[in-house]
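A protein record pairs a chain with a discrete description of its three-dimensional fold. The following entry can be read in just this way:
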Amino acid sequence: MIKSAESNPVATSFNRDYVFSLHQNMRSSLLYGKNNVCVSSTEKNDLLKGYLSLHRENTGLLTVKWTPNQLMHSSSEPSPAPKNDNNKLWKYVVNINMQTIIYLHLHQHGEEHPVSLVFVDAEGVQYAPFQFPPGQHCLSFLACLETGLSPFSRLDPPLWNHEGKG
């Protein structure tokens, strides 16, 4: 008899540890982390909430990662959804190498609305927009990104000008 990971505490612990290692490990430094950043699913155009993080690898590589909350918490919270839904969620996991990104598009409709950030790589591939909750969360992410890019790369135009105003 084959047991599912949900019924096997050892496998459940392994799955949880693997998901956490996507965002926290010895090979990289966490520069930014924010929960409940949304990405649009392709199936129903629903928004999936997840954990967004920015990392600097020991090699200097800068990466952006996003994992749906259901995968981050799949082993600690019972889910009313069918057990195989977690398998479908793996296709939404995002891992962006910032060396390949040439454009960032920011869409903002006032301070009380979510802010969308889109990454476009050198081949013109546009990643699904990240939707930050209302507030200064996207600005905090961009400030961490700009810091992480220096001294070898930068945002153009820079996030902050010489007078300290952005």
Observations:
- The domain at 5-149 is CATH 2.30.29.230 (PH-domain like).
- The chain has one domain: 5-149.
- The two ends are 61 Å apart (CA to CA).
